């Protein structure tokens, strides 16, 4: 639910922007702030996440549900852009904290042979949240008129569901690795038994956690046994792992994903989908055409993530990056070429726009979507896992903010196609970095990887 709400934030504002712009008349810079307000909040949330995670993974998710619900209510009642920016900042705090907690929790709770499959679920829910928001925005536009407040306020429903679930220990027990790391071995055994099922032999797995000495969350708001960010920089293995994760997270954003997600309806409107859908479905409203084409372009991401969950523990993380990141770059180059060389009003321009974004989204889900966070939850030594995960996620949000904030301004100055070419080039950089530096982690326990296994 945390990941669904993270995706919902991006999808809901993308659709709402079509209506906010004529209603509140924001400048390009203000549009950038509206989009990235939650991202700036997420940066702060990821900074404080290590301290929050000292209290456990579940309390962080509980706090996140509360903040998500508060933000949705404030967005629904927002009278101005300033008020709306502040409300979205609150959602960002929840996103930053939860985006550190969720991959960590899933990784710590998963059996080794299925860790890659389960670790794909958060990205599946992010994409589902984006698609759900697009659909809700379209339904609201068609049935309740241009009500952007309702589009943003609808997030209160999944927020309250998340909050409810965090009080259900038979569904969400605390992470057994966290409990063992805090010296609460019997509670860890009980949590592990809940996860594996009554009657399961958890002794060997529990022994591996204990023997690793991974005293996660041991003080001073850092990793285990008081480990800090400076300690991580001084440790050669942890430092190299941090650099790998940070570069992948930054490349994920510089390859354009959130610029595409936030501005897909606007990009497709520029691509001329109104002409395409007027011919195919007799839809004349450009806003409705943009949202409908966005839903069409985005829907294949969901089965793509199901496929990714199946491939993650078969192909491996590194192999999937090497195979599918180039497809992302090709799709972006195709979209840039369509905008450059085909005239507005040409149905082919709109068709290529939808097809390119569809291909880009599918290949993203099979590569740069889930894998940076999965690797970040896997490859750090146990004593640096919390601080390493939070650092990695924090850099992702910083890069997200830079790209999303600058996109509308740079788009007005240089045009959409030039930015798309830059994103395509960054896909090439990501591929080369992966080939040279990224390790493979499939089939190895977290304890083995943390000792230096996994090809790093």
UniProtKB/TrEMBL annotation:
It comes from the Eukaryota. It is found in: Membrane. The chain crosses the membrane at residues 29-48, 60-79, 85-106, 118-136, 148-167, 320-339, 351-375, 387-407, 419-438. It catalyses: D-xylose(out) = D-xylose(in); D-fructose(out) = D-fructose(in); D-galactose(in) = D-galactose(out); D-glucose(out) = D-glucose(in). Gene3D superfamilies: MFS general substrate transporter like domains. SUPFAM superfamilies: MFS general substrate transporter. Keywords: Membrane, Transmembrane, Transmembrane helix, Transport. Pfam families: Sugar_tr (PF00083). Residues 1-442 form the Major facilitator superfamily (MFS) profile domain. It is a multi-pass membrane protein. NCBIfam families: SP. Belongs to the major facilitator superfamily. Sugar transporter (TC 2.A.1.1) family. Homodimer. This is Hexose transporter 1. It comes from Tetraparma gracilis.
